[in-house]
Specification:
Chain lengths: 378, 172
């Protein structure tokens, strides 16, 4: 139903269009210009599939790795270790100590670019606030948390100042594009599009805040009921790596894109004694001209092995770029954990978009996998 | 509410839009779509001069590729949206140079409608595009998702966030 404000918005837009729009050139002028001026770069690709210069991919991978903007994680930098090490405050710089008697007090982030840590109340993946102002990316030093507790998805943002601890009510709700609610107290909290001010954390002139993926423990059980192996490039897993590359290649069939596995995680998702592979393949650049090229893609695959040894690969996420199109969603594995306490591992991803970011929780025991999303511009 | 003058008609404010007008000649496309694209682009980039550049460039692309384009109107539509997005990024870093725009930029906001239209121009690209397509052109969420290349489920939340922001802005 259209309310009064929306009607006024429509009227305001029509007035503005009437007020400002200019006179169209003649068709003859346009024909002349078409003959004399080179073609633009904004034209949509006319129906062709994405094309790729392989050297471009290698250059992108090397460049991104060199500047650290894109993390190709090794076995020493695994999801599991990220979660576990956050439990041990001496293993790496973690969140500031939290008063155990005050579960509502939250730590202050240390401002490093990306952190995936288990926090004191069970959050399993935390991304620092990110400000995208054209070419500039800034990371904020604050956290926030939220969760949904009903179907209304009403968002309540705790007031906070950058760099300060905040008090977080245990019952919050989140906004965002929630396609499905996963049972259990599980949430992806992300609200980035806000007007900087007292009630937001955004810096002046910016509009993006932090993202927090959060699981309300401990009544739901063990976050990590079974071991997880981040295979990386370990040679003893050559067969798994080859299988993953073959799956990525199959997903990219019909293109010239080179299959590049950026992360490979071995985990027994359901607890049936047979390991699955979570496959991430990303060439998408989150810096610069975001996702604006046909040489970029983002894939998330789940390779299941049946009791009879038959392999089946499920596509969780697939995005392939087009020249001139910024609309490629880049999904990156942030954590693997049993978020909702049902005994089945869930996948947590960070989702980057050309003008914002968000997060998803993938419940992997269904077909298709259930995805819960939150975010802004993602 | 927000101090707006009453509208003559509060109901039925949606605009009659000729969706994907069939065209089979360049002249037909020009007659049916150019003006509409120009108006929409003006809202999307906040500048008549920039909009003129974007739309004329997109239309010239259509002329050049006419024989290979299956749906010229859709192609023009997408090319204009692409151009507006890119032009909007450039424009945020530049002061207006057109005397008419300088006058507008320096004017006192004459009424709440101006204030609201100004606020639309401050929205992030995705929100601005959704607002213009939804409230100016009267597009459905499915059409907006298709045109912007976003998921249909994200259109509604984006529109709501944009409205929240606009309401706060006009309430200042």
């Amino acid at each position: 139903m259209t309310d009064l404000f929306e009607s006024q918005l429509t009227e305001a837009l029509h007035r503005r269009a009437d007020e400002r729009h200019s006179t169209a050139p003649s068709l003859a002028e346009l024909h002349h210009r078409a003959r004399t001026v080179p073609a633009s770069s904004t034209a949509p690709a006319p129906g062709q599939g994405p094309r790729l210069l392989l050297a471009g991919v290698f250059a992108a991978v090397v460049a991104l790795g060199a500047i650290g903007a894109w993390r190709i994680l090794s076995a020493d930098d695994t999801v599991v270790e990220r979660i576990d090490s956050a439990d041990d405050p001496e293993s790496e710089p973690g969140p500031a100590p939290v008063d155990p008697d005050d579960p509502l007090t939250w730590p202050v982030d240390d401002g490093s670019p990306e952190q995936f840590r288990k926090g004191p109340n069970g959050e399993i993946a935390t991304f620092d606030g990110e400000v995208i102002n054209d070419e500039i990316t800034v990371f904020l030093d604050g956290w926030f948390i939220a969760r949904w507790n009903d179907s209304d998805q009403v968002w309540n943002r705790p007031p906070a100042e950058p760099g300060t601890a905040i008090e977080v009510p245990l019952t919050q709700a989140i906004s965002g594009d929630l396609t499905t609610v996963v049972e259990g107290d599980v949430g992806v909290a992300a609200e980035a599009c806000g007007i900087p001010g007292q009630e937001t954390w955004a810096l002046d002139g910016t509009s993006f805040e932090g993202l927090h993926v959060y699981a309300d423990r401990p009544e739901l059980g063990d976050l990590l009921p079974r071991p997880i192996t981040d295979i990386g490039a370990q040679p003893e897993h050559a067969a798994d790596i080859a299988a993953a590359q073959a799956d990525v290649e199959a997903a990219l069939v019909g293109t010239d894109l080179e299959p590049i596995v950026t992360r490979l995680i071995q985990v027994d998702v359901e607890g049936d004694g047979i390991d699955e592979l979570l496959i991430e393949a990303n060439t998408a650049d989150i810096d610069g001209d975001l996702f604006n090229n046909s040489d970029q893609y983002s894939l998330l695959l789940l390779r299941r092995i049946g009791a009879g040894g038959d392999a089946e690969t499920v596509t969780l996420h697939e995005a392939i770029g087009e020249d001139g199109q910024p609309y490629l969603l880049r999904a990156t594995i942030a954590a693997v954990a049993d978020v909702n306490g049902d005994g089945v591992f869930d996948l947590v991803t960070r989702d980057d978009y050309f003008e914002g970011f968000g997060g998803s929780i993938w419940s992997l025991d269904g077909d298709p996998a259930i995805q819960v999303q939150g975010g802004c511009g993602a | 509410m927000y101090g707006f003058p009453p509208l003559a008609t509060q109901e039925g404010m949606s605009v009659t839009i000729e969706h994907e007008v069939p065209v089979d000649t360049v002249d037909g496309l020009y007659q049916s779509r150019y003006e509409a694209e120009l108006r929409r682009a003006t809202l999307l980039v906040g500048s008549a001069a920039v909009a003129q550049d974007v739309v004329s460039e997109a239309f010239c692309d259509v002329i050049r590729r006419w024989d290979s384009i299956r749906e010229p109107a859709a192609y023009l539509n997408r090319a204009v949206l692409n151009g507006c997005r890119q032009a909007g990024k450039r424009r945020r870093r530049e002061a207006p140079t057109d005397p008419a725009e300088q006058a507008l930029a320096g004017r006192t906001v004459s009424d709440e409608f101006d204030h609201l239209a100004d606020a639309v121009e401050t929205l992030p690209w995705k929100q601005r595009a959704v607002v213009v397509l939804k409230y100016y052109e009267g597009r459905t969420e499915a059409e907006i998702a298709e045109q912007l290349g976003i998921r249909p489920g994200s259109v509604g939340p984006t529109a709501r966030r944009a409205l929240d922001r606009l309401r706060k802005e006009v309430a200042r």
